[in-house]
Write a structure and sequence with these properties.
138 residues, alpha+beta, single chain
């Protein structure tokens, strides 16, 4: 029984030392950056919709959409030559920088004017519904 008490005391002492030696994260030199506004310029058929969002819940829906697109590969055809819906989504960050997403139809996405990539058509088609159902804040 005494043997177990000594063993338990040693284990508790080691745990206490390990907890006290926890690594401290270095303070970040860069301030926290967050989204302050999302602006959407959407053209489809003969219509032109402009939307601006500052409400956190509305912006979360748009960001969730963008992050869920999973762009991959480059298309064989040039999306700029395709007739159909086009959309420019400008995400403004708290540090003043902007991230620009361009979508053509429900199949092509370019981020910050990098080369076009293919997106799943079922996900890409959700943009039309988002723009038509989420009221603009501004």
């Amino acid at each position: 029984m005494r043997h177990y008490r000594k063993l338990l005391a040693v284990v508790l002492l080691l745990l206490a030392l390990l907890c006290g030696c926890k690594r401290q994260a270095a303070p970040s030199e860069e301030p926290l950056v967050f989204v302050t506004q999302i602006h959407i310029d959407y053209e489809y058929r003969q219509n032109h919709l402009l939307r601006s969002y500052t409400d956190a819940d509305k912006m979360d829906v748009i960001l969730y959409y963008l992050y869920g697109l999973s762009p991959h590969g480059q298309p064989e055809e040039d999306p700029e030559q395709i007739q159909g819906d086009s959309c420019k989504i400008t995400v403004t960050l708290s540090n003043g920088h902007q991230k620009i997403y361009r979508q053509i139809g429900s199949q092509y996405l370019s981020v910050d004017f990098r080369p076009w990539q293919t997106i799943p058509q079922d996900r890409g088609s959700l943009l039309y519904h988002l723009v038509n159902h989420i009221e603009s804040d501004i």
